[in-house]
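Dear Dr. L.,

I hope this message finds you well. Following up on our conversation about the binding site, I have prepared a predicted three-dimensional model of the protein together with S-adenosyl-L-homocysteine. For your records, I am including the exact sequence and ligand specification that went into the calculation, followed by the structure tokens. Please feel free to forward this to your student if that is useful.
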Amino acid sequence: MEKTDIKSLNLEELNAEMLTIGEKPFRAKQIYDWLHVKLADSFDEMSNLSAALRETLKNSYEIIGVKPVEVQTSAIDKTQKYLFQLYDGNVIESVLMRYKHGNSVCISSQVGCKMGCRFCASTIGGLERGLTTSEMLSQIYAIQKETGERVSNVVIMGTGEPMDNYDNFVKFVKILTDQNGLHISQRNVTVSTCGIVPRMRQLADEKFQITLALSLHATTDEKRKVLMPIAYQYSLKEVIDACDYYFEQTGRRVTFEYSLVGGVNDTDEDASELISLVKGLNCHINLIPVNPIKERDFVQSNKKVIDNFKNKLEKCRINVTIRREMGRDIDGACGQLRKSYQDRTAERKL
Ligand code: SAH
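The resulting structure of the complex is given below.
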């Protein structure tokens, strides 16, 4: 019989499980506390449960975690990149960024990705599978345990498309922000999507207070199709309407991510088109100097072009920031550490 992934159960579900195995409901609260507050990795740590109950749990449930196999630390800003191994041998990456306002962890939502964005390293090997709720949570738990420092912000901007792993993602948000768990404020959680419109609308209806970030990257459907295959499925109009709907339903300002690719989407004309596209929307634009990956020949826009692009937007009173590059000296961009680890292990096998 397959064991149940206990860390992916919310408190209500855990209560129901305890009832079915003839235990008192308060046991559910105790176990939930061990898993999501004390961040236990084994049933043996759960010292306020009887030995008999711990045995019963071991027979029917498993605690799914992630195991660090490599950690890189930036000498510049102490950003840390973690490579984690999963129960099935797959590897994923997560990043810890230390800011003045607190520690922020960027997690992966899938093993690989099928969205095919041209500049992104995560998508090169395609999609392996979606992560379980427990695997998403465990990236944060493992980093908090390892550093002994509280994580206050979470961004779902690592490998994978969270809207392509919707149910596990939504459950992850609920458990992560639950007052009986780590209780991270929903306002400190940001999810980034390439723009899967029906899921964005569904997320709006969940009425979370999390920030939605849309990977925009281009200002016309034609240009967006060059960078992002998802643009063949949903037009810019549909995507922007979904962002509007998100704002209507949640009152949360949407972030547009715009990776500046030298000579591709960084001209004055692009800036003007971007201004007309977002005019009147309650939004924030995050300009990301593209992080070149060796498999593609995209280059970063030069500094002057980036500053000029930003100034143009600011003149029209659009909220805009340039994303600070963290961990430049380590395999910083999405999917690069995992990719280089896979390349290295493949070389060793030859
Ligand atoms: N699938 C989601 C989240 C993962 S990527 C999404 O598409 O939004 C997080 C952000 O990093 C996205 O905006 C993505 O387009 C961007 N990104 C990926 N690779 C990049 C690179 N090499 N340089 C700059 N931005 C990149």
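In brief: The first helix runs from residue 11 to 20.

With kind regards,
A. P.
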